[in-house]
Structure to design on (929 residues):
């Protein structure tokens, strides 16, 4: 069982994660209209015995396969997946742990990959949406249920919903409608595909029963 | 010579593919995460770029120094997008773009650019018109009939204040692109709703030949009217690539920047006086309106107010355009229509309440003031039936108990028709079929619609047709805007496939011993009309082509009705809500949508459009608003935590009824992306008013505003 249960935004006391790097990691995207306040705080707090700020070698175990890469400690799991490894099913949408489009399963739990540093995701199984389909094999029942129930329009939020649905069904193979809504409440769709989403996850839960592929 | 084919749609009973509930063709690709959006494009040696924006709502750039940024690790190129002396009207205005080996390095470098500003006074909140001073500009006044006299003669007069704030598009894939400018060739992967048109626009900005820009885009993560043009960041991205010696550059806006500068929907506020005779027929519409669409203000669209109920005999309005220090509006799903529907239908329901009239009865009575009275009357009746209006509706504020239920109405209309679209159909001797259009699928199901139309024409299953869109090498199809895509592409595809089929008949006819005009395509065969025993399989017929493929075009002309398509739809929404008067929380029970959209090609994806449009209305009615800070001029909630949109538990049940009766079907294909996104705001606001007995003037109907209204104070 993973020690990381939820995207964790509490500053960590001491450890491998540089507070400075961490704060820069979460505040950088402010970009064109960023306030600059967090950066000032970060400058004022040097921390000893930390990884980085230069690149460090890490290994990420993604969909059962180890990937060696070198990243700065501030790089999020999402950026590592997308920019370094070209695994782009998880989407960058809010980049602040609000919308769920980057949902992956880390150590068995659904997490926001934009709110976890890549270096924190070592030594755990990382499952991305790409794991649900393989050449020559029928897609996972969830993927099929999403298609059949038209639980997507533009599709940009969809991989996140699929992974949130997968984590939900792993924990609760027989959810009620209310539990489905609760399980998917950490994800946002702008096109408004919630009607199909409800049906898709309920259908997949029925089809996956006894199939041993939760 | 082959005959001119009969392009008309097959009669409903003869349709094999059109009208079936088909799953979207790109569904598995999207749901499995394998679809490559432009944001997902990776190119060898690709650089990442970010924008530096002006931090002030109104300022003049006095100096800019990039020397420290140039030395920052990983930096490959810096493109200045502003000059000293230039004045900026909104926070986030583009100052520079920086490309580096990683996005983090690009941000580090952007932060090292020293830009100094002279800060100028700003104005960002327009709701209270008296604060606007010289930011307000009278812009349009019109009187028809004699409103003053009619007000005197009226039996009932109602007055109210209504408003809706600025919203943003909040497309989940932010705006941006990958550009690779090598030599004189530019490869361009934008996130756009304008695959054929955006490349030439970029070429113009860069002063290169349009033919040198190759645009690619398989899928797009939301657009809603905000992604027609390359934008200044597209041009900057290209110039960065050139500066970096042709290395590909990816520049996608971060979320806060997308909120601030990549488009928004104008606000509108109105003081409206309405009047009616005792029978309920409206006689007066007297309105003072204002609003903003950014630093250029906003006009009241002419000829659209009052909305739908256009024939009120005595109308007066005065509009004031207010300029604020914020980025300009862009087309937002049914531009201006949701706002005008909201202002109109809320004032109307207030008038109905004052008349002590049932709202359905009142809207039905006033349907005679619309251009399609029979359509709206029938839709009101159907929506009322689905909403169980007779059973559940009660006069305003008469519910007892802490949780109060209410019902309300909103209406829509939309023009539609079809944009200019060219389609090329190729039938190969091996039986394979390619259908190519320089179009795009915004998630509306366009790709699937094209395949359905082609399959219907050619008598093939959908799997027998390969649809190719999303590339400007394919024949030009216009941008997706105004719900004109389905009309445009279905007509051009129909014509192109029927033209190609005619050529195939000519090739197959000798073998079947009949004239080409004796043939038809059905069930994967080319057969003699009325005698299916005399037939060739599709493949065998195609083999008769020898070594030459058939290549045939089809064109839908600019917006004109052509028999295959039409425009001018109506729709009615009824909302059913429960308001908890102790917490102020509005719960959606149901939203009923009755919609006319002509011939429905794929009911499954059409329904999804209506579901999505209704959910967007729920967002706008209950949660969404751009909040600007008067002191700093900043967009306070430019993130997805505090810019609220609905989650899966917020939307209740949505009931869709499409008018597919023969009189609607025979009109041909009409777009659906926009009309159902219009009436929901008014329906929900009216339902809340009906429940609690008090009008909350300005959306969104947040718990704080509900509680304040119940206590009789301003929120």
């Amino acid at each position: 069982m993973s020690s990381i249960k939820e995207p964790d935004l509490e500053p960590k006391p001491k450890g491998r994660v540089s507070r400075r790097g961490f704060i820069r990691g979460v505040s950088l995207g402010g970009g064109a209209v960023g306030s600059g306040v967090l950066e000032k705080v970060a400058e004022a707090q040097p921390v000893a015995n930390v990884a980085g700020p230069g690149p460090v070698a890490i290994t990420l175990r993604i969909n059962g396969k180890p990937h060696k890469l070198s990243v700065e400690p501030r790089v999020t799991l999402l950026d590592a997946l997308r920019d370094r490894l070209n695994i782009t099913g998880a989407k960058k949408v809010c980049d602040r742990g609000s919308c769920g489009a980057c949902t992956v399963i880390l150590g068995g739990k659904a997490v926001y990959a934009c709110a976890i540093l890549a270096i924190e995701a070592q030594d755990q199984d990382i499952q991305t949406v790409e794991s649900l389909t393989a050449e020559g094999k029928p897609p996972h029942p969830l993927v099929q249920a999403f298609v059949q129930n038209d639980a997507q329009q533009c599709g940009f939020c969809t991989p996140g919903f699929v992974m949130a649905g997968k984590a939900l069904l792993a924990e609760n193979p027989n959810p009620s409608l209310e539990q489905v809504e609760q399980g998917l409440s950490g994800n946002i769709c702008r096109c408004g595909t919630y009607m199909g989403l409800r049906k898709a996850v309920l259908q997949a839960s029925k089809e996956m029963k006894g199939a041993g592929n939760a | 010579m082959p005959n001119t084919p009969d392009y008309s749609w097959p009669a409903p009973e003869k349709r094999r593919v059109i009208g079936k509930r088909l799953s979207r063709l790109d569904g598995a690709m999207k749901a499995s995460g394998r679809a490559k959006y432009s944001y997902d494009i990776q190119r060898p040696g690709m650089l990442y770029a970010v924008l530096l924006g002006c931090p002030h709502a109104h300022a003049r750039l006095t100096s800019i120094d990039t020397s420290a940024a140039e030395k920052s690790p990983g930096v490959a190129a810096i493109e200045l997008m502003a000059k000293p002396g230039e004045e900026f009207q909104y926070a986030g205005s583009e100052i520079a773009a920086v490309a580096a080996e990683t996005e983090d390095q690009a941000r580090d470098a952007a932060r090292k650019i020293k830009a100094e500003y002279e800060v100028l006074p700003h104005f960002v909140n327009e709701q209270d018109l008296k604060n606007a001073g010289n930011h307000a500009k009278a812009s349009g006044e019109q009187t028809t009939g004699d409103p003053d006299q009619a007000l005197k003669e009226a039996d009932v007069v109602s007055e109210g204040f209504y408003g809706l704030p600025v919203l943003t598009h909040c497309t989940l894939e932010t705006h941006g692109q990958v550009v690779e400018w090598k030599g004189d060739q530019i490869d361009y992967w934008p996130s756009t709703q304008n695959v054929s048109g955006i490349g030439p626009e970029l070429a113009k900005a860069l002063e290169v030949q349009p033919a040198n820009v190759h645009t690619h885009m398989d899928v797009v993560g939301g657009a809603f009217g905000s992604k027609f043009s390359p934008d200044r960041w597209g041009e900057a991205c290209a110039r960065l690539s050139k500066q970096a010696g042709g290395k590909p550059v990816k520049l996608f806006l971060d979320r806060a920047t997308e909120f601030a500068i990549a488009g928004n929907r104008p606000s509108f506020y109105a003081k409206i006086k309405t009047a009616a005779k005792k029978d309920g027929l409206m006689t007066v519409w007297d309105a003072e309106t204002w609003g903003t669409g950014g630093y250029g203000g906003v006009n009241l669209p002419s000829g659209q107010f009052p909305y739908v109920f256009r024939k009120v005999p005595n109308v007066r309005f005065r509009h004031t355009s207010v300029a604020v220090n914020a980025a300009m509006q862009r087309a937002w799903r049914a531009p201006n229509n949701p706002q005008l529907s909201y202002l109109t239908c809320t004032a109307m329901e207030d008038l109905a309440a004052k008349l002590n009239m049932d709202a359905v009865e009142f809207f039905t009575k006033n349907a005679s003031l619309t251009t399609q009275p029979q359509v709206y009357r029938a839709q009101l009746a159907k929506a009322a039936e689905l909403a169980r209006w007779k059973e559940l509706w009660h006069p305003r504020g008469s519910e007892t108990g802490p949780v109060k239920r209410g019902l309300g109405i909103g209406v829509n209309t939309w023009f539609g028709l079809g944009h200019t679209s060219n389609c090329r159909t190729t039938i190969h001797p091996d039986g394979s079929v390619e259908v190519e259009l320089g179009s795009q699928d915004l998630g509306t199901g366009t790709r699937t619609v094209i395949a359905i139309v082609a399959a219907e024409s050619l008598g093939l299953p959908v799997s027998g047709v390969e649809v190719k869109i999303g590339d400007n090498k394919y024949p030009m199809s216009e941008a997706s805007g105004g719900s004109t895509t389905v009309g445009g592409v279905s007509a051009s595809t129909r014509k192109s496939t029927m033209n190609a089929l005619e050529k195939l008949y000519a090739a197959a006819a000798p073998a079947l011993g009949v004239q080409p005009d004796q043939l038809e395509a059905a069930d994967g065969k080319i057969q003699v009309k009325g005698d299916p025993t005399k037939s060739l399989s599709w493949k065998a017929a195609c083999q008769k082509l020898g070594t030459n493929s058939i290549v045939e075009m089809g064109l839908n002309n600019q917006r004109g009705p052509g028999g295959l398509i039409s425009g001018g739809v109506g729709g009615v929404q009824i909302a059913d809500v429960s308001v908890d008067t102790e917490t102020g929380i509005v719960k959606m029970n149901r939203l009923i949508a009755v919609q006319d959209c002509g011939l429905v090609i794929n009911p499954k994806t059409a329904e999804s459009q209506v579901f999505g449009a209704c959910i967007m209305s729920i967002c706008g009615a209950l949660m969404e608003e751009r909040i600007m800070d008067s002191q700093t001029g900043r967009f306070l909630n430019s993130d997805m935590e505090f810019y609220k949109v609905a989650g899966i538990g917020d939307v209740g049940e949505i009931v869709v009824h499409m008018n597919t009766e023969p009189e609607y079907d025979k009109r041909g294909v009409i777009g659906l992306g926009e009309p159902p996104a219009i009436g929901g705001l008014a329906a929900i606001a009216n339902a809340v008013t009906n429940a609690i007995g008090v009008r909350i003037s300005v959306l969104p109907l947040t718990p704080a505003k509900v509680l304040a209204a119940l206590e009789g104070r301003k929120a």
Notes: The first strand of chain B starts at residue 47 and ends at 53.
